[in-house]
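[PROTEIN RECORD]
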Amino acid sequence: MTKTKKAGDGLERIGVDAATGKLKYKATITYRVNGERKWTTRNILADDKADALVQKNRIVESLKSRHGGVNPHETVSEAIEEWLATLRPATEYTYRSLIGKIQRPLGERVFSRLTTQEIIGVLDGIEGVNVANSVRRAVHSLCRWGKETGRLAANPVAETKQRVPKLTEEERLRLLKENPPKPRRALLPHELERFVSTLERDYPETYMVLMTQLLLGCRIGEAIALEWADIDMATGEVIIRNNRHRGRTGVPKGKKSRWNALSVGWRARLAIHREQMKAEGREGWEWLVFPGKPHHRRSTPYYRYETLLEHCRDVMRACGIKLAQRTQTHAMRHTLASISRLDNADFVAQRFLGVRSVASVPSTLQQALGHSHPAQTDHYTDVPNTHLVEHAERVAQRVLGGGGVFGGDRRPPEPKGCDETGT
């Protein structure tokens, strides 16, 4: 095999591209920026050597303009190569095949003059909705980079929309069957009563942890990391400032503490619980509310999350309760949100009557859960269907008066122009 010699213009022919049939050149580019000599190599596809030299000169101008301004004559192909060079190898490999569907028809266009209509025209010619959407995401990333580097005044892809596949009636019904409604994340009132009584009977210590989590509306890691210094036993105020996650103790989610409170009755139960931990000589009983049982593999006094999860699943299985996966311990937080908001007037107005809340300050439940926006609290709420009928009766009594949906003896209004037979 004979080696080709490098020409004086810095171009070396290295073969022929199998896909396009064009000649492949390796360009060695040398340029200066602020008196400093720099060099790089690029692969160029060209019809002949003269075409390759023209492309090389454009690349030199583009490299110089990166440090001293933007090249107004930069083509789409040149911009794509500059953009791909900034990506990680794995990302570059994925985007290069997608961006090629834009580079082939628009490669010689000036990048700064790229329009939305041109991009839409190329996307419309791509077969397959998923492929078109993938190409759109790649071009969107390219144009976003062009805007950040000053090459584009605006992102032309921002005005385009993702393609939506047209479904037949049979496909739509099939998708409805394959995607049933999401399972519940909160316990219903009658399920909660059965769950609590079974948990207290079978696992008393886990009962104390989960009930404290339910009453505070905190996360399970925040309940495990709760300390006696965080609870004011006189007033009932509780500050949640620690969280236990994956074997480490840190700040709560959101990186901020929040206040809550416990009732007098539950503070008395916690005082009895502390005396029991003291009598058993548990490690950390002086400062930790829920110290775990001693174990030769444990190096910390915290209660194990795996133990809580195992006990919670056992009790739910025994009670016949089915919730969404991976929400067994977090169900206490969803349950508090659901039960607390069933009788909330603002929530009822938003969810059932279609009006917005008039409250201008965060609700008490929102503060207890530590949410920054009311929409997060609404997301946590699972309203059972059995309460919809009860709510309809309450609304009817307030709006129409009397009992029943139509207010006692009051009948629904008859349509005009009808006699007693309805004709």
